[in-house]
Amino acid sequence: MALVVAAQAAIGVVEAVGIWLDLDRGACREAKVVTAAEAQGAAFVLTAEYRYWKQIIRKELGPIAGIMQRKVALQGSLPIVVRFIKSAEALVEAATTVPTRFLDE
């Protein structure tokens, strides 16, 4: 799975950037920063503007709700993603525990 932040020069994201997550049976075996082009090689790619990722991290927007509201673009099978909604929620919950400094604050 890869998560991609769209470019937003105003806050210093001059080109789209991705995070590649190697997920296996509820465990994240590896996470690394990749180019947007490299991220496209993942089975599932979620792409969104910075403001929507920020809302997801702050639990103001759920990842599945973001997809359904077209705030988050999904490349991959929506039925499979929906089937693993608990995993998506757990991933967001884990992300909220990481100390974060937002670029626009």
Report on this structure.
With 105 residues, the protein is of the alpha+beta class. The chain has a single domain (2-95), classed as Nonspecific Lipid-transfer Protein, Chain A (2-Layer Sandwich), CATH 3.30.1050. The chain is 33% helix and 28% strand. It has 5 helices and 5 strands. It has helices at residues 36-39, 50-57, 63-68, 78-83, 85-95; strands at 2-5, 17-24, 27-35, 45-48, 72-75. The chain has a 5-stranded mixed beta sheet. A hairpin with a 2-residue loop joins strand 2 (17-24) and strand 3. The longest helix has 11 residues, at 85-95. The radius of gyration is 13 Å and the shape is globular. The termini are far apart.
Which percent range describes the beta-strand content?
A: 25-35%
What is the rounded distance between the termini? 28 Å
Measured on Cα atoms, how large is the radius of gyration? Answer: 13 Å
Number of distinct beta strands: 5
CATH homologous superfamily descriptor? SCP2 sterol-binding domain
CATH class term = Alpha Beta
Q: Which overall shape is indicated by the principal axes computed on the Cα atoms? A: globular
Order of helices and strands: EEEHEHHEHH
Structural class of the secondary elements? Answer: alpha+beta
Architecture in CATH?
Answer: 2-Layer Sandwich
- CATH fold-level label: Nonspecific Lipid-transfer Protein, Chain A
Sketch the major β-sheet: 5 strands, mixed
Return the average pLDDT rounded to an integer: 91
Helix content: 25-40%
Number of DSSP helices? 5
